[in-house]
C-alpha cells in the first residue's frame, strides 16, 4: 500500500532524529556536569572526604577515570551507555538503571493518572467554556484556568497538604505508604490513599493548559463559517459543540497532552518533593543536591527520551488522524 | 448550554476592548511594580529583623501576615521576595529574549546554521524545563547569577522557534524579496523590514516568558538549587514553611505563595492582553 | 410568502480606539418574495445583500441594530420564530465553501443537516444519500472530505444540504462565485429546480448575468436600499422599461450590451456617499 510505503521512511526519519536529539542531550548534560565546580571525587566520597589523603584521592580519580580529559570521559560514558550500563548511584548505592526503574514505577502511577485526569477534565471544561463565549460558565472556567496557569505547583501542593492533611486530616501528609510498614506490605487501598492528593494537585495544574487551548479552538470554531452554517441549519449550540466541536478540538487537545509531558514531569518533581513521595522526581532532587552525577545524567537522558517520545507522538498524530494531512490536500 | 443564540460574528468589539484592556492592565501592573520597588526602599532591613518575643505568631494587627520561626515579619519578607523574583525574572526574560532573537537571526543566515539552531532547540525542548534548570544550576554551582542564567538558557527555545518561523516567512514575503531585488543592503532589509515585524513578537514573547521565568526561579530555589537560603526569596520562604507545615503554622506557607501567584497572574494577564492588542 | 417591511440594519463601526459609529447597512428595505419564484437580488459588493440574507435567517451579529418587520406566511418572523424555522422552513446556502466542516465526510454532513431539520438519524442518512445522488455526487464524493472536493462539487454539496432540509425558502448567497460556466449552469439549474418544486429561492449575486437566465424577478440593491424590482424580462434591449438609471446602467454595462460602463461609473456612489449615520 502507498500508505505503508510512506509510513516506513517517515518513522525511520523520526527515529533517527530522536537518536540525534538524545545524543545532543547526552552531550549537553555531560558538558554541564563537567563544567560543575563539584569535585567528583568529593561527591563520591561524601562525608569520608576528610579521612582520605591526596594520594588516595588521586588513586580514586584514576580508578574512575576522573583525571582523563573530558572528551575521553564522554566517550567512555557513552560506550558504557550503549552497553546498557548507566553507572553507579552513590546516593542510593545501587546501579542508576535500577534506581530509575524502581522510582519510575512509582512515578508513573502519579504521572499517568494525573495526565489522564488533566486531559479528560481539561478537554471537557474547554469545550463547555468555548461553546458560548462570555457565558457565566465560560467566565467561571476561564477564570479558574487563568488562575491555575499562574499558580506555583509546589505552593498548591503546600496548600493542599495544609488544608486536607493537616487541618482536615483526610489524606496522609507524606510518602507512598504508611511509615514503618515495609514496601511489599502496603495495601492497594493505602497506596491509592497516599496517591490521591498528589494526583489531584498535579492534575489541577495540568488542566489549565488544556482547558485554555481547547477553549481557544472552540471559540475559533464558533466564530467560523462552519458554525454560522450550522446555525443556519437550525443547530443549537450544544449540537454544534457536540458534532463539530469535538472533532475540531479533540486532536489539538490530545496533541497538547502529549507535548506537555515535560511540563507534567517538572510538576511531578515539585509535588513529589512536597508530599515526600519517593518517585523519580524526588530522586532527581536528591541526586542534584548530593552531587550524584551518574544518576543526574541518567535521569536527564531518561526524561529526555520520555518527553521526546511524547513530542513524537504529538507530531505524528496530526499527520495520522487529520484528514487534511493524510490525503495530501491543502 | 443555551441553544440557538445567533453567533456574535464579527465580535462586536474587536478593536476597542483588547486595546482598552491592555492599556488598563499595563497601567495597573506598572503601578504595582512601582509600588513593589518603592517598598524596598521603605522596608530597609525589616525583612531580616528578628523579634525574639514574637516568634511564629499568627497574623494579627501588629504582625500583618504573622512572623516566622525567627520572629521576622512575613509581610516584609514576602514583599522583599517578590521584588527579588521580579528582578530575577526581568533579567532572565530579557536575556532569554536576546538569546532567542540572535539565534533566530543566525538561523536565517545559512541553512547549515539553521539545522544547527533547530537541533539545539529540539535538544533543549526535549528535556523537561525543571531538569534542565537543575542541571544548569548544578553546573554553575547555584546562586543568583546561576539562577538567572539557568532560567534564561532554558526558556529561549520556544520563543526562538516562533521568531525563526516568522523570519523565514518574512524572507519569503514579496516586499522583502522586492527590496532585496532592488539591491537594498542586508542591513537595510533587516533594519527596515524585518525588525519592525519582529519587535512586537519579541516584546510579547519576553512578557510571556516573564511569568514562567518567575515561577521556575521560585521552583528552583524551593528545591534548593537556586538563590541562597539567606536571601528572602519566595522559594526560600516556602521551603522554610515546609518544615512547619505539620505544626499548623499555615500563614508561613500560604501568604508568600499567594503573593507570587498574584504577581504571576498580573503579568500573565498583561501579556495576554498585549498579545491580543498588538 | 416572505414580506420585508421597511427593514433597517445598522452595525457598529470602530473608527478609533474608543469611538464607535453606526454604519447603515440596510436602509428602509421593503420587498415581498412569492412562492415558486427565483428572485435575484443583485448589487455591488457591500450593498448589503448578504446582510439581508442573515437578517432573514436571524444570524446577525448580536451588536446589530435592526428595525422594521419581517413576516413569513403572514405571521411576523421574530427571533424566536426564526430560531424555530431555521433549517426547517428557511435554508441558507452560504457564500463561502469554508462553511463545510473540513473534518467530517460529505454524506455525514448532509445527514446532519437532515437531522437538524427533524429527521431521525436513519432517515437522515437515506435522504442525504438521495439528495447527493440528485446532485450527481458519486459515492467517492460522498465519502470525501471538503478539501478533496472541487469548487463545483462543494457548491453542490451545500445546495444538497439546503435541499434535504425541505425548506420552503432557500437563500443562495453568491452560489456562482469561482465556478466555470458549466459548473455554474449546473448550480443555477439546481436552484431553478427548487423553485419549480414550489419553493422560494432568493438568489443573491453581484453579477446580473447569472441571475437573469433563471430568475423570475430581479431586485437591484445599492447602499442597502432597494433601487428597483423588475421582472427579469424587463432587462432587454436598451433597458428602456427599467425605471431607475442605476439598474439600466448595470444592464448596459454587461458585455453583451457593449460594455457601456461609463453609464455605471456615473451612477456608482462616490466614497462620500457611502452612508455613515
UniProtKB/TrEMBL annotation, chain B:
GO terms for biological process: transmembrane transport. Keywords: Cell membrane, Membrane, Transmembrane, Transmembrane helix, Transport. One of its GO terms (cellular component) is plasma membrane. The chain crosses the membrane at residues 20-43, 82-109, 129-154, 187-210, 248-267. It comes from the Bacteria. It is found in: Cell membrane. InterPro entries: BP-dependent_transpt_permease (IPR050366), MetI-like (IPR000515), MetI-like_sf (IPR035906). Residues 82-271 form the ABC transmembrane type-1 domain. Coiled coil: none annotated. It is a multi-pass membrane protein. Pfam families: BPD_transp_1. The keyword Nucleotidyltransferase does not apply. PANTHER family: ABC TRANSPORTER, OLIGOPEPTIDE TRANSPORT SYSTEM PERMEASE PROTEIN APPC. Belongs to the binding-protein-dependent transport system permease family. This is ABC transporter permease.
From TrEMBL, chain C:
Pfam families: ABC_tran. Coiled coil: none annotated. It is a peripheral membrane protein. It is found in: Cell inner membrane. It is an enzyme of class 7 (translocase). SUPFAM superfamilies: P-loop containing nucleoside triphosphate hydrolases. Keywords: ATP-binding, Cell membrane, Ion transport, Membrane, Nucleotide-binding, Translocase, Transport. Residues 9-248 form the ABC transporter domain. Transmembrane segments: none annotated. GO terms for cellular component: plasma membrane. It catalyses: Ni(2+)(out) + ATP + H2O = Ni(2+)(in) + ADP + phosphate + H(+). Its EC number is 7.2.2.11. Its main location: membrane. One of its GO terms (molecular function) is ATP hydrolysis activity. The complex is composed of two ATP-binding proteins (NikD and NikE), two transmembrane proteins (NikB and NikC) and a solute-binding protein (NikA). Belongs to the ABC transporter superfamily. This is Nickel import system ATP-binding protein NikD. It comes from Vreelandella maris. The lineage of its organism: Bacteria, Pseudomonadati, Pseudomonadota, Gammaproteobacteria, Oceanospirillales.
Amino acid at each position: 500500500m502507498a500508505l505503508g510505503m510512506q509510513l516506513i521512511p517517515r518513522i525511520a526519519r523520526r527515529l533517527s532524529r530522536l537518536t540525534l536529539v538524545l545524543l545532543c542531550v547526552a552531550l549537553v548534560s555531560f558538558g554541564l556536569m563537567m563544567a560543575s565546580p563539584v569535585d567528583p571525587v568529593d561527591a563520591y566520597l561524601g562525608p569520608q572526604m576528610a579521612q582520605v589523603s591526596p594520594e588516595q584521592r588521586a588513586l580514586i580519580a584514576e580508578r574512575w577515570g576522573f583525571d582523563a580529559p573530558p572528551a575521553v570521559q564522554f566517550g567512555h560514558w557513552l560506550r558504557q551507555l550503549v552497553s546498557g550500563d548507566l553507572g553507579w548511584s552513590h546516593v542510593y548505592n545501587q546501579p542508576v538503571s535500577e534506581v530509575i526503574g524502581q522510582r519510575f514505577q512509582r512515578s508513573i502511577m502519579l504521572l499517568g493518572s494525573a495526565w489522564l485526569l488533566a486531559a479528560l477534565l481539561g478537554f471537557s471544561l474547554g469545550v463547555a467554556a468555548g461553546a458560548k463565549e462570555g457565558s457565566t460558565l465560560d467566565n467561571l472556567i476561564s477564570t479558574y484556568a487563568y488562575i491555575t496557569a499562574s499558580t506555583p505547583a509546589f505552593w498548591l501542593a503546600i496548600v493542599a497538604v495544609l488544608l486536607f492533611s493537616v487541618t482536615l486530616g483526610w489524606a496522609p501528609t507524606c510518602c507512598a505508604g504508611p511509615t514503618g510498614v515495609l514496601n511489599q506490605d502496603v495495601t492497594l487501598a493505602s497506596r491509592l490513599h497516599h496517591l490521591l492528593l498528589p494526583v489531584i494537585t498535579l492534575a489541577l495544574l495540568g488542566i489549565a493548559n488544556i482547558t485554555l487551548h481547547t477553549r481557544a479552538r472552540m471559540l475559533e470554531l464558533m466564530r467560523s463559517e462552519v458554525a454560522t452554517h450550522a446555525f443556519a441549519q437550525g443547530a443549537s449550540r450544544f449540537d454544534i459543540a457536540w458534532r463539530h466541536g469535538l472533532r475540531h478540538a479533540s486532536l489539538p487537545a490530545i496533541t497538547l497532552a502529549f507535548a506537555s509531558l515535560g511540563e507534567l514531569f517538572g510538576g511531578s518533581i515539585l509535588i513529589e518533593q512536597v508530599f515526600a513521595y519517593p518517585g523519580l522526581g524526588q530522586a532527581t532532587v536528591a541526586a542534584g543536591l548530593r552531587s550524584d552525577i551518574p544518576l543526574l545524567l541518567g535521569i536527564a537522558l531518561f526524561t529526555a527520551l520520555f518527553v521526546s517520545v511524547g513530542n513524537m507522538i504529538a507530531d505524528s498524530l496530526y499527520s495520522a488522524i487529520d484528514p487534511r494531512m493524510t490525503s495530501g490536500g491543502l | 448550554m443555551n441553544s440557538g443564540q445567533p453567533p456574535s460574528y464579527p465580535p462586536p468589539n474587536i478593536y476597542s476592548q483588547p486595546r482598552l484592556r491592555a492599556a488598563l492592565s499595563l497601567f495597573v501592573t506598572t503601578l504595582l511594580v512601582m509600588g513593589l520597588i518603592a517598598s524596598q526602599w521603605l522596608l530597609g532591613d525589616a525583612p531580616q529583623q528578628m523579634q525574639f518575643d514574637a516568634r511564629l505568631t499568627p497574623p494579627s494587627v501588629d504582625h500583618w501576615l504573622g512572623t516566622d520561626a525567627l520572629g521576622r515579619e512575613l509581610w516584609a519578607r514576602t514583599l522583599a521576595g517578590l521584588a527579588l523574583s521580579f528582578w530575577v525574572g526581568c533579567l532572565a526574560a530579557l536575556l532569554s529574549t536576546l538569546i532567542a532573537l540572535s539565534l533566530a537571526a543566525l538561523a536565517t543566515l545559512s541553512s547549515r546554521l539553521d539545522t544547527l539552531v533547530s537541533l539545539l532547540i529540539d535538544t533543549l525542548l526535549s528535556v523537561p524545563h525543571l531538569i534542565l534548570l537543575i542541571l544548569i544550576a548544578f553546573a554553575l554551582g547555584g546562586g543568583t547569577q546561576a539562577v538567572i542564567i539557568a532560567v534564561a538558557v532554558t526558556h529561549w527555545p520556544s520563543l526562538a522557534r516562533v521568531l525563526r518561523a516568522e523570519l523565514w516567512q518574512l524572507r519569503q514575503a514579496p516586499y522583502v524579496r522586492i527590496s532585496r531585488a532592488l539591491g537594498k543592503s542586508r542591513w537595510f532589509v533587516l533594519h527596515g523590514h524585518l525588525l519592525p515585524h519582529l519587535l512586537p513578537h519579541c516584546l510579547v514573547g519576553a512578557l510571556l516568558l516573564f511569568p514562567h521565568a518567575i515561577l521556575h526561579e521560585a521552583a528552583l530555589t524551593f528545591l534548593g538549587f537556586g538563590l541562597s537560603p539567606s536571601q528572602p526569596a519566595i522559594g526560600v520562604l516556602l521551603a522554610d514553611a515546609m518544615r512547619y507545615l505539620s505544626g499548623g503554622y499555615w500563614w508561613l506557607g500560604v501568604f508568600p505563595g499567594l503573593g507570587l501567584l498574584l504577581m504571576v497572574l498580573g503579568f500573565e494577564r498583561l501579556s495576554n492582553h498585549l498579545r491580543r492588542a498588538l | 410568502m416572505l414580506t420585508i417591511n421597511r427593514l433597517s440594519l445598522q452595525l457598529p463601526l470602530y473608527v478609533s480606539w474608543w469611538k464607535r459609529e453606526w454604519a447603515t447597512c440596510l436602509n428602509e428595505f421593503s420587498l415581498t418574495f412569492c412562492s415558486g419564484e427565483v428572485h435575484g437580488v443583485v448589487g455591488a459588493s457591500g450593498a448589503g445583500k448578504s446582510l439581508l440574507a442573515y437578517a432573514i435567517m436571524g444570524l446577525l451579529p448580536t451588536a446589530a441594530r435592526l428595525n422594521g418587520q419581517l413576516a413569513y406566511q403572514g405571521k411576523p418572523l421574530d427571533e424566536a420564530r426564526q430560531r424555530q424555522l431555521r433549517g426547517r422552513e428557511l435554508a441558507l446556502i452560504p457564500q463561502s465553501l469554508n462553511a463545510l466542516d473540513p473534518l467530517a465526510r460529505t454524506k455525514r454532513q448532509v445527514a446532519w443537516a437532515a437531522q437538524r431539520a427533524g429527521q431521525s438519524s436513519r432517515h437522515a442518512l437515506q435522504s442525504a444519500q438521495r439528495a447527493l445522488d440528485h446532485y450527481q455526487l458519486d459515492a467517492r464524493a460522498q465519502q470525501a472530505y471538503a478539501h478533496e472536493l472541487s469548487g463545483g462539487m462543494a457548491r453542490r454539496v451545500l445546495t444538497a444540504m439546503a435541499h434535504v432540509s425541505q425548506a420552503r425558502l432557500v437563500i443562495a448567497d453568491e452560489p456562482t462565485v469561482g465556478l466555470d460556466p458549466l459548473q455554474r449552469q449546473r448550480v443555477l439549474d439546481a436552484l431553478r429546480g427548487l423553485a419549480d418544486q414550489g419553493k422560494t429561492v432568493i438568489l443573491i449575486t453581484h453579477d446580473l448575468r447569472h441571475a437573469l437566465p433563471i430568475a423570475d424577478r430581479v431586485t437591484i440593491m445599492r447602499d442597502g436600499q432597494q433601487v428597483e424590482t423588475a421582472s427579469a424580462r424587463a432587462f432587454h434591449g436598451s433597458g428602456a422599461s427599467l425605471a431607475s438609471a442605476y439598474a439600466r446602467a448595470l444592464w448596459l454595462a454587461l458585455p453583451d450590451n457593449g460594455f457601456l460602463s461609463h453609464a455605471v461609473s456615473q451612477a456608482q456612489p462616490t466614497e462620500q456617499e457611502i452612508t455613515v449615520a
